């Protein structure tokens, strides 16, 4: 049975530093993350039918991710298990206004995923394919897979959603700009964060940033602005999306949960504005807890705010 939202990228084991006065040897709590996996969890918790395209290692982290997806109702039949390569890992030290990341993902199972691994029929049958620039950054193989998946999607009227998630500890700004600019004409929905968009374009005015991404061909642009909310543009003038109420302690996964929730509610309601306003509520709850996944709310927790 086809799913409505497919995501392609790298899932990761997550180690989050816990609040402590120990700078040298903090305690870490193990969980799971990865931007596309986070987005799918958010979409699934809002009631969407979702599936993943990726690869994990034949190791405890890969097994843990598969259990997570099973628990969340995420279809993982197109996730392969690599017999030799490991599941990627990242470490994060959070704080209210941001976070620091370190990765141990070189040679990971997902980094070896390439165009020949793509299930073309599944992409053709989905309503939305969600990919990110972070996925492009992890390896040439995955970068080629992201492009090919988008080409398959466009050929079959599957919408392509693109988060310009920028991690400059994975590639240079010049390489990121080149890859992102080359991909943008394939994207129907683009969801950049304002700080990343400023680095990529050299622009600072929010309206100019939105106009830049619209000019590349996107039907919908959602400029994520953290505590300032978001700006939505779909051709009829920009709309300011207010942030949801929050008590921020960790911004890890906030943009991912916003993206996944937006896609879920866009499919449910057909309204980008309604979807963006609901996604802002999801992101606000996400930053109010530790880790990328555990604080993401479910639809029934938010229904009174809609």
Describe the overall structure.
The two termini are about 30 Å apart. Strand 9, helix 6 (about 175-185) and strand 10 (about 190) form a beta-alpha-beta unit. A 9-stranded mixed sheet has the order 5-4-1-8-9-10-11-12-13, with helices on both faces. A 4-stranded mixed sheet has the order 3-2-6-7. The protein has helices at about 35-45, 60-70, 120-125, 135, 140-155, 175-185, 195-200, 205-215, 255-270, 270-285, 300; strands at about 5-10, 10-15, 30-35, 50-55, 75-80, 90-95, 100-105, 130, 160-165, 190, 220-225, 230-235, 240. Helices cover about 40% and strands about 25% of the residues. The chain is α/β, with parallel strands linked by helices. It has 11 helices and 13 strands. Helix 1 crosses helix 9 and helix 9 runs antiparallel to helix 10.
Keywords:
306 residues, alpha/beta, nine-stranded mixed sheet, four-stranded mixed sheet, 11 helices
Short précis:
The protein is an alpha/beta fold and 306 residues long. 38% of the residues lie in helices and 24% in strands.
What's the arrangement of secondary structure elements?
Blueprint: E1 5-8, E2 12-17, E3 28-33, H1 35-45, E4 50-57, H2 60-72, E5 74-82, E6 88-95, E7 98-104, H3 120-125, E8 128-132, H4 133-137, H5 140-155, E9 159-163, H6 173-183, E10 189-190, H7 194-201, H8 206-215, E11 220-224, E12 230-233, E13 239-241, H9 254-269, H10 272-286, H11 299-302
Helix pairs in contact: 1-9, 9-10
